[in-house]
Amino acid sequence: MGLVIIFSLVTLLALFGVIRSLREKNILGLLFGLGTAAVFGWFTIMTVLHHGYPVAH
User: Fold this and answer.
1) Cα separation of 8 and 18, whole Å?
2) Cα–Cα distance, 30 to 17 (Å, whole number)
3) What is the DSSP annotation of 22-55?
4) Residuewise pLDDT in 10s, the chain (57 residues)
5) Which of 4, 35, 38, 48 has the most CB atoms around it within 10 Å of its CB?
6) Do the domain assignments include residue 57?
7) Is residue 6, in this structure, part of any structural domain at all?
């Protein structure tokens, strides 16, 4: 359960960074933010689907 929370927080922070880099027109920050949001967002979704929420033993 802790892993899902950490992945979700990283994804939310990456999305915040994407929005901020769009406002500042920072292309490199936008690319890294989108990559981070995509990877950690995928990990979040797959962890929830595989292990369930809350964790099913």
Assistant:
1) 15
2) 8
3) HHHT-HHHHHHHHHHHHHHHHHHHHHHHHHTTTT
4) 788 889 999 999 999 999 999 999 999 999 999 999 999 999 999 988 887 766 666
5) 4
6) no
7) yes
